[in-house]
Amino acid sequence: EEEELDSEIERRLKYRLTDEIQQHWIAATGTRPSIFQVTSARAADPGAEKLIPVHRLVIQRRAGEARNAYAQALQDDPTACLEPGPQMDLIRLLIGAGEYDLAIRALEILLQQHPTQEVSAMARFELAHLFLRLGRYPDRAAELLQRFLESKPPANLERQARSLLDQLPAPRPSDQQTAIFDQSADAEPSADA
After folding, report:
1. Hey, what's the torsion of the CAs at 166, 95, 122, 109, to 10 degrees?
2. What are the C-alpha distances in Å from 18 to residues 6, 36, 83, 84?
3. What is the pLDDT averaged over residues 70-78?
4. Residue 44 — φ and ψ, nearest 5°?
């Protein structure tokens, strides 16, 4: 059973149709490639093989080992990323194991490599939620939540995102506004007061 799982993961990763491969193929032929054309042209992502153990461990829900394997993959390639769906599975596994910093890094890589994929909206929500949970980058969290809301999420997730936005501190005034406020506080009260 594990052997079948390994071969299926290897096949999917080795012969995936990355956006870059599709764009090159379209530019050269004017048509979309099929998986058969790509595999016969050997246009597979060369870094994908290194992520096979990570993918296997994610499927097996072995969080500690998946964490170690992914951290090693990131040392070899700082932009290592599974396909969007499995990458989100890895991220959820990392979050569940309390590996927040690695989950944040994996989310950022996912958003850099697949900014327009359907799963990217959920990645923005997860990243914003992690930032807020850890008390980090409230402005970035607000930006991510706004972009998530623009994706027209399901009603329950929309409510959660709006609730998180409501919990954010009010934006700080700019330095210029603060300087004006400070000057008016130093001014003498008017005779009318």
Report:
1. 110
2. 20, 14, 9, 11
3. 88
4. -75, 155
